[in-house]
Amino acid sequence: MYWKEMLGAIAKPDKNAKRYELSTDYKYEGLQEYPRPQLERKSYINLNGKWDYRIISGKGQVVSSGLIEVPFSPETALSGTDRHTLLPEEMLEYTKRFTIEKLKKTKHLLLHFGAVDQVAFVSLNGINLGVHEGGYTSFTFDITDYIVEGENELKVKVRDYTDRIGYARGKQSIEPSGMWYSAQSGIWQTVWMEWVPKVYVSNITMIPDIDNDKLNVELRVSELKGQVTITASNPDLIKDYNVDSIKDDKIFVTVKLNKYKLWSPEEPNLYFLNIEYGKDSFSTYFAMRHFGVGEDENGIPRLTLNHKPYFMNGVLDQGYYPESLMTPPSDAAMINDIETIKSLGFNMIRKHCKIEPMRWYFHCDRIGMIVWQDIVNGGTKYDMNMICNIPTVVRPFGNTRDKNKLFLRFTGRNTDKSKEVWFKECAETINQLKSVPCIGQWCLFNEGWGQFDARSCLEYAKKYDNSRPIDAASGWFHEGCGDVFSEHVYFEDLKVKLSNKPYVVSEYGGFSLKVGNHVKRDAVYGYKKYDHPKDLQDAYECTMDKIKSLKDEGLSAAVYTQATDIEDELNGLMTYDRKVQKLY
């Protein structure tokens, strides 16, 4: 029965299908909200808005120019450009002029970028500030020595190599179709500045310890010249706090807690702090919770929340919008997606092939939504026949290291440069998101995309965060490591495979339905296609009943594909424009 569906899923999609204009109803209002909720200061200068841009070909010719609305990539409708797709040999140049009315001689001015895809060369007033590689993580420059009173000129030059070098790219493709989406480039998250004292906190990491009623805090500081003061909005929360040690530019603080409630999707309790270091002051928040692995009363391995077996009922979410691709058009857009997913009975989102703006994670924290976070896939070109089509058709497949030796040569991660890139991007991702309470698991590799030596990669990731489980290889090409046994099951019957690790179905479903004119392209991609809403609903309910029945047999988590339609993929709980909810 499923052979026809399986072969249809690996068939080549129509790259020339007709395209349509499509948009959500969310109103873009400049994305003015403070972009970093866990280190929020009163000083805030938002640089989103109109910038000058031009795209220069490899031969030095200007192929596109004018005004662009930052933080939207030039390939998007909300950018206001002609939507030219940046090619690997082209250069995208931004220019922003801003005015500093008066310099603050006792303070520093920091320039922050939420994300720029892929390589950003930044200069201010003709002086090079530096280069950032990687299209999904944030970065900062101290521009104190380069700003002047009056007008300043900020330039950002961007190269986007897509799959030429090995940087993270997620699902982006210059020739999108099927499971691959429109490529985008350049600045796609908020650009902003803030004044800070000369002695300030540049980063904070918070790890809760519910077993010992404490919060472990690590402050990275510009200079070791301040005293740490911590107060809570709830006066009964903090019992006391102590500076445990100081190492290089880091201060380690233990905050002992007196009265608190644990965080869970059912009760998403958050606690807010104000931290002072010398003259620096900022607000932050945390939650008390623990994600781990254990056994239930029958000795079956389980994922746990707060040391109790907890079934994680998840949905795959890739965070794309028809008018803005990876950039959410507004705070309301992010909130509505999370709340809709929760209203459908899910308590977990697998954030697939993307890192969201930090405000998205804050909304998951406060709404109550566990997040499984992918390390965004990259590498050079994948051989899709060898790492996707054959494993899809020939199952079971690739569950031991010996079987994988042949196929891992085709994953796009064979050069030293591409491996070096993965380690760097993995560390940056974990460091950026480590303090986020809702993140319950990391996923290092998906279906072999950019995969190499998962065991050493797992050991590397654990050095940066050993406080939550890690799925070393989601789907197949398991290399005998990781905290869970993770499979994708789209065509076979769902069943539990017991091992010495929690068994999770990290992708299933993929039920597709085309809804009227709520589509971006006249194409349908999915694993099981339906023509009528009732048939889709019936199949969905039947599958959900099966998932529920497998919980008692040892299924620890399941991830339904997916939250919304995206371009050719019409397997969403909602249409791409979020105007029709297909399933209830």
From TrEMBL:
PANTHER family: BETA-GALACTOSIDASE, BETA-MANNOSIDASE. The keyword Hydrolase applies. Belongs to the glycosyl hydrolase 2 family. Signal peptide: none annotated. Residues 199-289 form the Glycoside hydrolase family 2 immunoglobulin-like beta-sandwich domain. Residues 303-532 form the Glycoside hydrolase family 2 catalytic domain. GO terms for biological process: carbohydrate metabolic process. Keywords: Glycosidase, Hydrolase. This is Glycoside hydrolase family 2. Residues 87-163 form the Beta-mannosidase-like galactose-binding domain. GO terms for molecular function: hydrolase activity, hydrolyzing O-glycosyl compounds. It comes from Pseudobutyrivibrio ruminis. Gene3D superfamilies: Galactose-binding domain-like, Glycosidases, Immunoglobulins.
